[in-house]
Every structure is written in C-alpha cells, then in structure tokens.
Write a structure and sequence with these properties.
Elements lengths: L9 H6 L12 E3 L8 E4 L5 E9 L6 H14 L3 E12 L5 H18 L2 E9 L7 E10 L15 E5 L4 H10 L1 H4 L5 H8 L8 H9 L5 E3 L5 H12 L2 E6 L7 H10 L12 E5 L4 H7 L4 E8 L5 E3 L5 E3 L7 H9 L3
Parallel strand pairs: 4-5, 9-12
Antiparallel strand pairs: 1-2, 2-3, 3-6, 4-6, 7-10, 7-11, 8-10, 9-11, 12-13
C-alpha cells in the first residue's frame, strides 16, 4: 500500500494508531478520535486543560507563526483559552543561523499576540531533511461550560462559517509557488495573498462562541479545506451534510490563485476560517456576536449521504476523506 502525502488516512488511524494509546486514564475526558482537534484532561484541582499538537510541513514560509496559531486554533475551537506553547524544531544541515532566528522570532511574536508563553521545546540539526520542520504543542484552560467536540453536532444543525475558504493555502501558494504563478497572477494579487498569513488566527471568534454556549461543535478546518472540515465533523458525529458551494465565501485573491493552478478552494488547507454547528434558534444570537458569520449548509441524518451542491446546481457525493489540494500541487510541481 502506497502512503500518500498529508494526514494519515482514517482507516490507518482507526486500524493501527487509535488501538495503541497506552494506559486508559479517567482524567482523559476527550482523547484521540477522528475529527477531533485535540484532547481534554481534568487536573487534580478540577480544572480542565485542552491540548493540541500539529506540525507545519506543507509550508516553506512563516513556520513559527503558523505553528503557534494553528495549534492555538485547535485549542480554542474546543473551548480552551491558549496559554502554554511547546515546540520541536528540526533544522536541516544546510540551514543558517539566520533561518533559526527568523523561525523563533515568528514563534515569539505570534505567542505574544495571543498572550501565550513558550514553556519548553527542543531544537536540533537533523540529517536527512531538506527543509525545517516544526511540531507545535499548545495547552489552554477550558473556558466554555464543557469541552466542545467535533462529535457533538446534531441532525438539523446549521453549518456556519467565519471568514473565507483556503486562507492558509492562499498564503502558502502565493509564497512557495511564486515562480509557478509568475505570468499567471499579477504581482499585486500575490503580495496581497502573502499577507493572508496574518489572518490565520480564529481564537477570538472561537472563544466568543465558546463562552456563550452558542454552538454544539466547532472545528479548525486545516487539511482538506472547508469541505474536509465539514466532512470530519459529520463523520465524528455520525451524521451527513449538505453543503452549498455558492454560500462559501472565497476571497478574490484565493479565487485568482486557485484558477491559475486549477485547484478547488473548498479543498484547500483552510486555517484562518472557523466552521461550527449551531441550532437554528441560536443563529440570530451568533450573528450579533460575529456579524460576518455565514450559513453554508446543514447537518443531516447519516443515511441521507454527504452532498456538495456546486454553483451550477450539480450534486457531488462526498464518500471519503477529502485530500488537500496543497498536497496534490506539491506532488504535481515538485522536482522530479
């Protein structure tokens, strides 16, 4: 079996990884499960701590900034306020001291912006890698009434979204695919797209919803984009969904870059957007808190199947984990 780039496929996780999780402890309230952004543990004092871990491997730029924000997002969508960050930084043999300084400066600035302390970590020069790899681990204190899980959506819930599709992917493509995009996309669009790195955080919006008990589930849609994130909530909750392409907001820069590379913005890595399931009766309250929140679909009973309604009205059945367009493009354009 040939393994593909990106997250391990669900069947491998469930057949191998999730069956080997060490000791079962009563203080682990939310553990590893497909579709969940992190875990929740209960301390001896009764506090609940949210933990999340993610690497940054698909980007060659802003690694430190992404590592802090992506992991903070995962904690926030589970109802946790990010507070403590740890990192492992693997540095290739051909790196310069300036490369290390740039990455740790990005970590410092991102952490300061979120009020997060960097508490521990490890860094080394690693043989056998071509680019820096950073693995982040974020801890935060639960501030919602209870942990918010991807698996708590219910049939009939509205699928809502904040900001636009493919934010992280747009930033990465405009930075790492500059040579490929020259002549296809204007310099002005590329420069604007590079600033999308600054839109990555969803912590503020996620905590607004979490503290007011408005949503049943939230998710940080990373690999697989908006479509992949909705699929993960549906699978975790044993539901299906109907999603409307024309309801999903897509920035002009994202549209232009995706058109140039023939990729689907709904399947493009999407940190910076927030998706959630909310009861319909909470929609007005949610929009008062976050005015730019959009309804993009609805969760349904599982037997109805997963449907993406395209702009032209055609229906696309989504039967499996969504592969991210970034990995496809990396494979397509990587040196042979």
């Amino acid at each position: 079996m040939r393994l593909r780039l990106g997250k391990l496929e669900r069947k491998i996780l469930e057949k191998i990884v999730f069956k080997k999780l060490g000791e079962k402890r009563r203080d682990v309230l939310v553990g590893p499960r497909f579709g969940e952004d992190g875990s929740v543990i209960k301390t001896w004092s009764g506090d609940m701590i949210v933990a999340a871990m993610d690497p940054i491997t698909g980007s060659g730029s802003m690694l430190g900034w992404l590592a802090v924000n992506v992991n903070a997002n995962d904690v926030a969508v589970m109802g946790g306020e990010p507070r403590w960050f740890s990192t492992t930084l693997l540095i290739p043999e051909n790196a310069k001291v300036g490369d290390i300084e740039r990455i740790v400066s990005e970590i410092h600035l991102a952490a300061k912006k979120l009020g997060v302390a960097v508490i521990t970590g490890h860094s080394e020069i690693t043989p056998g890698i071509m680019n820096p790899i950073i693995v982040g681990h974020m801890l935060g204190k639960l501030v919602s009434r209870k942990p918010i899980r991807s698996s708590d959506a219910r049939a009939g819930d509205l699928i809502v979204m904040v900001k636009t599709a493919g934010i992280e992917g747009t930033a990465i493509l405009s930075t790492d695919f500059t040579e490929i995009l020259k002549g296809r996309v204007s310099e002005e669009i590329l420069e604007r797209a590079k600033r999308f790195f600054r839109r990555i955080s969803v912590v503020e919006d996620a905590l607004k919803l979490a503290k007011r008990n408005i949503c049943r589930s939230m998710h940080d849609p990373t690999e697989g984009g908006i479509l992949g994130g909705v699929y993960e909530i549906a699978e975790a909750s044993k539901l299906s969904f109907i999603l409307y392409e024309d309801k999903v907001p897509v920035a002009v820069e994202t549209k232009i870059i995706c058109n140039a590379l023939n990729c689907d913005p709904l399947k493009l890595i999407a940190s910076g957007a927030l998706i959630a399931s909310i009861p319909e009766e909470n929609l007005r309250k949610a929009k008062r808190i976050i005015p730019n929140l959009r309804v993009i679909g609805r969760f349904r009973h599982r037997k109805m199947g997963n449907i993406l309604v395209r702009r032209d009205g055609t229906e696309e059945k989504i039967k499996d984990t969504v592969r991210d367009e970034l990995w496809r493009l990396i494979e397509e354009f990587k040196p042979r």
